[in-house]
Amino acid sequence: MELVAAAAGYLYYHSCVNQPQSNSPPTICTYLKALLEGPVKDCRELLRMDKHVFHKLSETLRGKGLLRDTPSVLVEEQVAIFLSIIGHNQRIRVIQERFQRSGETISRHFNNVLKAVKSLSREFLHPPSLETPPEIVNSKRLYPYFQDCIGVVDGLQIPAHLPTKHQPRFQNKKGILTQNVLAACTFDSQFIFVYPGWEGSVEDLHILRAVLDDPNQNFPQAPKGKYYLVDRDYTNTEGFIAPYPGTRYCLHEFRGASQMPQNAHELFNHRHMSLSNVIQRPFSMLKTRFPILISAPQYPFHVQRDLVIATCALHNFIKREDGIHDWLFAACAEDVGPVEEPYGQEEEELELLHLNSTPTDIAADSLRDSIAITMWDDFMHKWEGW
């Protein structure tokens, strides 16, 4: 009996080994094939980008060896699975049904693509140009006053899902569980630095200081004479220009002819806010394109953190590949317009205020005061001729 069993086993093994092996490459799944061959709007709706950008992204990830075709799933399908999840915050079960794959396959490729895109973040997140941005050069209200500004830094709150024991630390001022993200962007709505994963209760200023004290973070420091704009949650230091404290700042505080700036500090704050507010555009586009960022997905926290980096990298990739024609960038471009100067009320002569500077802030304070006074002189000169 043992000989018979051994012989049967040998014949079975021999038949398996000598069967002709299939060398045919995997084929694209029926659903994705129909999507890529169908109307542009359908592809844009599901993948959150146009077809040629999707193909370029897949080719980039394949060409750099970050993703590879498996015997049954092409890189294009792997990327489509990932984009479907982050672009709609859908459950694995829904994507499983759509692509006719097992839950394990969907989950595995989601994580693989996430790691691949994250690994490209340094390539997609470039330091800012040191030349004066055209958004400033082309504005008489901003140039030459902010000609040395190279970007904006601000915090972004992203809803987070966490175990009960960690929840108190991640509650923000409104009692909502969030991760605090430090981000820097250029004036054409591209991210240049992203640092997610901080507790929602941590102040923006603390995060910025921690980043600047850690050389491993590779924050693109502003060279001497250049600076970033930061809001009133930060302090005015060399390389970072904040608004004047204790002075009107929000744009709604200047609405109406009777609310026009009354001194150099208010005028500076008004234009500072209108310029630094541009960072809200990429924040808004990021959440609109990738709704997974607004719903606290039930993934491990390190995955939630990596999703922020990956989506910012994809945002930049789309901007560079199709920034003019992309549906979301085009819509935001149409909404962008200059904030009009609130002329209309008779002025009185005002004594310009000068805030005291601490030794550590003297360089930034001097620059800010210089900008404010020059801006005010020009403002009054124009008003006198109004």
TrEMBL record:
Alphabetized Pfam families for the sequence: DDE_Tnp_4 (PF13359), DUF8040 (PF26138)
Subcellular location as annotated: Nucleus
Chief location: nucleus
Cofactor: a divalent metal cation
Keywords: Hydrolase, Metal-binding, Nuclease, Nucleus
Domain DDE Tnp4: 153-316
Source species, domain of life: Eukaryota
Keyword Nuclease: yes
InterPro entries given in the database record: DUF8040, HARBI1-like, HARBI1_dom
Domain (DUF8040) ranges: 30-118
Protein family: Belongs to the HARBI1 family.
Descriptive protein name: Nuclease HARBI1
